[in-house]
Amino acid sequence: MKQYLDLLNKVKTEGIRKKTRTGIDAFSISGAMFEHDMRKGFPLLTTKKMGAKTIFVELEFFIKGIHNKKWLQERNCHIWDEWCDPRIIPYANDESTKQKMLQEDELGRIYGVQWNSFGAGKTWDYYDPHVEENETRMMFTLKENKGINQLKKVIETLKTNPTDRRMIVMAWNPLELHTQALPPCHYGFQLLSDGEYVDLLWNMRSWDISLGGGYNIASYAMLLQLICAQVNMKPRKLICFAADVHIYENQLQGINEQLIRTPFDLPTIDIIKNKPDNEWTIWDWNYLDFKLNNYKCHPKIELPLAV
Fold it and tell me: At 122, is the pLDDT very low, low, confident or very high (cuts 50, 70, 90)?
């Protein structure tokens, strides 16, 4: 995808050097947009080999609201190995803390939990004012709140009112940032439709475009295809709005190699359903339920992760 390489090169050539919490300097630009037409192929990077199965394991993990990284590791996906619930092991980037974070499996109320049960937990119910002898007393009741399944709600809205402009799913929950292994980088997405095609637009507060960029693009592309498969519509635009777009100093060698490579034609992906169309939902989907067609790519490029 030329548009991805152009953005990668822009960050490399125009980025401002910044100190980061990881201890590794980054080159950063403020504000960027990535757009892809899904009718031109599935946006899996071809200038380096991408592990589609690893990307889709994480996507299934999000869709099903799972929050224990052991589930990922059992499927040979190690994207979240270095992270854990900060309430159990408070974040730090010294070696001792990193080892403790590696050993803890719980990730907290991360992306998929927010998608499936935003606001779940014990909350104070609405109060009723009771006036007695010129005093106003507040009556509170503590209740168990199951939360909102945002993902289910937007899919139902897409079926019944496809031109609605309020089909939004948020992972950014200010009340629960302290419960998340990492405050969401891709913090929300929105669906727009004309009843035939569906567009997906997502927001990034922070985008490690060289390492995570290709994963995020392919993941949201598959999410769009899965939603379309459930509602019997067709995917069209995939758009990312990113705030801090950066590359890390220790990634430059791999980035230089990627930028001199010529992209191949994009592949296509077929979704395999394990139920009849009228019964199947994206929660029935398994990360192996796909067929990748005509994927031709350059060799893999190893890039270090900044934790």
Answer: low
Sorted by sequence, the CB contacts under 8 Å of residue 72 that are 6+ apart come out as 57, 58, 61, 78, 79, 80
Q: Which residue has the tokens 């296509």?
A: 268
Is 84 noted as a catalytic residue in this protein?
no
Nearest 10 degrees: Cα torsion 240, 284, 77, 245: 10
CATH classification number, 2-118+150-293, choose in 3.40.630.30, 3.40.190.10, 3.40.50.300, 3.30.572.10: 3.30.572.10
- Residue 136, pLDDT score: 47
Exactly one of 185, 228, 240, 297 is catalytic; name it: 185
Token pair, residue 300, equals 């893999």
Taking each helix axis from N to C end, the angle separating 2-14 and 213-231, rounded to the nearest 10 degrees, works out to 150
User: What digits encode the pLDDT tens for the residues 63-120?
Assistant: 999 999 999 999 999 999 999 999 999 988 899 999 999 999 999 999 999 999 999 8
pLDDT-based confidence at residue 141 (cuts at 50, 70, 90): low
Q: Is the dihedral of CA 7, 13, 19, 24 positive or negative?
A: positive
Q: Which candidate, 208, 207, 200, 202, places its Cα nearest to that of 231?
A: 200
182-194: average pLDDT: 97
> Per the structure block, which two tokens stand in for 95?
């070696």
Q: What's the one-letter identity of residue 121? A: G
| Conformational region of residue 287, where left means phi above 0, alpha means psi within -120 to 50, and beta covers everything else | alpha
- CA dist 176 and 86 (Å) reads 11
Amino acid letter, 18? K
- Looking at every residue in the chain, the average pLDDT score rounds to 92
